[in-house]
Amino acid sequence: MITVIGVDGSPLAPADSAAIAQATLVVGGRRQLAAAPQNPGATVIELGPLDQALNALARHSGDAVVLASGDPGFFGILRSLRERGLDCAVRPAVSSVALAFARAGLPWDDAQVVSAHGRDPRHAVNVCRAHPKVAVLTGPGCGPAELGAALAGWQRRLVVAEHLGTPAERVTACTAAEATTRRWDDPNVVIVLAGRPQASAPGRHWPPGAARGGWALPEDDFCQQDAVITKAEVRALALARLAPAPGRLIWDVGAGTGSVGIECARLGAAVVAIERDPRRVRLIQDNSKKHGVDVRVVEGEAPEGFIGLPDPDAAYVGGGGTGVVEAVVTRQPDRIVVALAAVDRVAPACTVLGKAGYTVDGTLLQAARLSPLPGGVHRFDAINPVFVLWATRPPGSDGSARVTSARTGDRPERVDRLKEAPSLKEARSLKEARSLKEARSLKEAPSLKEAPSLRAGDAG
Asked: What span, in angstroms and rounded, lies between the C-alpha atoms of 152 and 460?
């Protein structure tokens, strides 16, 4: 019999102590083993490589105990045991996430819980960018300092809980920027918050659009003023090709009213909207607030407006022509959707995407909407036709620009660090040196210099 016992720093129950005393094999992490007296005749395996412990448990014929942190069924060892086909009796303790929220005095039934331990941290980072309340199980290369750096540009506060349930326990509240300036002890759990904590938050039904309202919302659901809004029919196709989801980062370039980016955010994605017109920047902010989503809005034109932004998983280009498409391509998102009103721009855009290694497809989207007439009859009113292109990167085609950064989970950002680092010799790593070269070439490329300004809603 294998008994899995959770340890949270509180005294063990008598039944747990009895199970450990009877076990002839005890497996656990260093902290958990130190917290539990064992049978002197038992074989003890300190958890390191998981396979060694799992193999020993599978071969063992007597009673065995596995000591785990907190709740073994919550991002814990229980999954690995069950995948090996091992039957277990489980006695959970309080999970580290529940303990962290308790220490912070916050409810967490409306929180998202993600893990950056032993996996690409990009998914966890993007959930923190999109959702107002997230608990992150940290790991090497994605601790509080790395999370804080990755959240630059998003208004976030962090609650860092170190050594939970031990005499060395420490809980610290700070801004994302402050988290980058200090060293943190392992193990730790990080709570990432947008705005002030609330007793109940709309995030309980997150993503917002998944619970109500669907997608491809009517244009009247967005404040428009003088901005040309992307029509619902175009948005429906764009969303299908962008594939927004929790853990992904979407760029909405030439955002106009922000309708495409907001719809992506309603489906759980993190979103950056880039818009050159200050009035439309405020419009996007108002529309984001109206729909209860957190869209980061950047005022600027391509390519300068992209400087310092994390690389997207997908990008929507709603205006600006071929020059803007070229600028987006340099960041190598997996998916790009381009909406064009003019047929003359289709072939150049296809050429740019094709040369960058994308597989390109598209359609001319023509729609007519039912419109009532006097006397109880109807007609169809045509809306402006739009050319929609979508481009995807074939699997395994990623180049050097797609290397994952261990620090933030993002691909190396093409930030303009020329002012900060006068020479390539002063770059902190080969990756950074490559980014500086790319930033310089981006700055000098004539085609990008001559790119037309972003025109939001170019595609209608």
From this structure: 32
pTM, full prediction: 0.81
Q: What would the two tokens of residue 420 be?
A: 């900060």
pLDDT for position 319: 77
Decide: helix, strand or coil at residue 127.
helix
Contacts for 265 with CB less than 8 Å, ≥ 6 apart: 130, 207, 208, 244, 271, 288, 291, 293, 294, 295
**What's the full length of the chain, in residues?**
460
Copy the structure tokens of residue 159.
Answer: 């609650």
Residues 230-241: tens digit of each pLDDT: 999 999 999 999
The pLDDT of residue 67: 96
So where are the chain's domains? 2-94, 97-201, 208-449
**Residue 221 exposure: Cα atoms within 13 Å on the Cβ side:** 18
Could you confirm whether domain 97-201 is CATH 3.30.950.10?
A: yes
Select from 3.30.428.10, 3.20.20.300, 3.50.50.60, 3.40.50.150 the CATH code of 208-449. 3.40.50.150
Cβ-defined contacts of 215-223 (< 8 Å, 24+): 215/239, 215/263, 215/266, 215/267, 216/263, 217/259, 217/263, 219/259, 221/291, 222/257, 222/258, 222/259, 222/262, 222/287, 222/290, 223/257, 223/283, 223/286, 223/287, 223/290
pLDDT at 49 (0 to 100): 84
> In the chain, which residues have pLDDT < 70?
196-206, 208-213, 396-460
CATH for 2-94 (3.40.1010.10, 1.10.760.10, 3.30.110.70, 1.10.10.10): 3.40.1010.10
Mind listing the pLDDT tens digit for each residue in 33-42? 988 888 888 9
Q: Please report the pLDDT score of residue 36 as a whole number.
A: 85
pLDDT computed for residue 227 by the predictor: 74
- At residue 340, the 3 state secondary structure works out as strand
Task: Determine what percent of the chain falls in helix, strand and coil, rounding each to the nearest 5.
Answer: 35, 25, 45
Q: What is the pLDDT of residue 40?
A: 87
